[in-house]
Write a structure and sequence with these properties.
Radius of gyration: 30 Å
Order of helices and strands: HHHHHHHH
Largest sheet: none
Helix content: over 70%
CATH class: Mainly Alpha
Length: about 220
């Protein structure tokens, strides 16, 4: 009887130890599983983001192809697409806004010249372009702004710098390109004169309307 009691207690203790080990193992596996789930979620989010960005580039390339047709070789279209996309990302200018400014300024015509000698896709003045060209050690010539890649690189950078200037002055919030677009169209001096005043926002309204159109197709 005493033997049976001891044996019974031993078996009970053994089962208790086994149960505790099993619970510990399950808990450990649960921790690993939760960590793996978190990693999978992060990976999926990264993949979704990459897919979204890849889709934007594809949409942009199709847009450029539709605007230029056979006037621009495919390799140059791809280079222009990459330039617009990459510079927009680096300088934090919305892609839809960039496309809207190009349409507003030149109607996607890289060879247009305004009466005041603004040139190319984003209608860059030679005096505006020269400092940017100097940074990259690119010599200026009268035709250089008709190069779509050089033109948009300068145009996007200039718009971004105008935006940063208005932020630093405390007159604009990041992401609000109202004053930057006014400066792009009328010049920084003109914008400084209308701070805190009502002003003609026809240009900004037109660009914003076009930006919404580009945003609606996925840019």
């Amino acid at each position: 009887m005493d033997f049976n009691n001891k044996f019974g207690r031993f078996v009970l203790s053994l089962f208790t130890v086994i149960a505790l080990c099993s619970m510990t193992l399950l808990a450990y596996n649960s921790v690993i599983t939760n960590k793996e789930v978190s990693q999978l979620r992060e990976a999926n989010q990264l993949i979704l983001k990459q897919n979204t960005e890849n889709n934007k580039k594809q949409i942009l390339l199709k847009l450029i192809d539709s605007k230029f047709g056979t006037k621009l070789p495919i390799a140059q279209k791809v280079k222009l697409c990459d330039t617009i996309y990459n510079v927009s990302q680096i300088r934090q200018v919305p892609l839809d806004t960039v496309c809207a400014v190009i349409e507003q300024e030149s109607g996607w015509n890289p060879n247009v010249t305004s009466p005041v000698n603004a040139k190319g896709l984003m209608q860059i003045m030679p005096s505006t372009a020269k400092p940017y060209l100097m940074i990259d050690k690119i010599p200026y010539n009268s035709d250089i702004l008709y190069d779509p890649v050089i033109n948009v690189t300068i145009g996007i950078s200039y718009l971004a710098d105008l935006h940063e200037g208005h932020i630093e002055s405390g007159k604009s919030q990041r992401g609000d390109f109202t004053y930057a677009l006014h400066s792009y169209n009328a010049g920084p001096t003109a914008t400084a004169q209308i701070y805190s005043q009502k002003f003609d926002a026809t240009y900004q309204g037109s660009v914003n309307s076009k930006a919404k159109k580009y945003a609606s197709i996925g840019l």
